[in-house]
Amino acid sequence: MNRARAEARGFTLVEVLVAAFVLVVGLTAVVTGLQYARGGIEAARGETTAAFLAEQRLEHLKAVSLASWPAADLRAGTTVEDYGSIANASAYRRVTTIADSPGGTCEERCKLAQVTVFYRPVTGSGQLDQERRLDVVTMLVSRN
Fold this sequence. Notes:
With 144 residues, this protein is of the alpha+beta class. It contains 2 helices and 4 strands; from the N terminus they run ααββββ. The chain has helices at 2-8, 13-67, and strands spanning 77-81, 92-100, 110-119, 132-141. Strands 1-2-3-4 form a 4-stranded antiparallel β-sheet, covered by helices on one side. The radius of gyration is 29 Å and the shape is rod-shaped.
């Protein structure tokens, strides 16, 4: 009979407090982990978009080089696209540098094209982080 009364009694206040503490610690760890995961996802999204924008610019230059080697887009120099000037990518800026016959090895038949994309990733807390950059370099060669 004493056993039946002990089982019907329920949990003590100490047991409930310990269980609540364990739940709070576990939930805090899960929420912290989710914040880190979100920050990682945002950083990866920024890097992927930057790589896409650099490749997009290089593909444009390749297409121009196939159509007309002496085109204005392929002249030696630097082109700067500031924040807000790239369609559908206002949080990015892009710098394109073209050099004629780098190293003097290929005379007028090749150009070195470097595209640098800058961006500010969003941290897990929603703040803008320091500006990051992604560089992509390729050699353009005339088919003539």
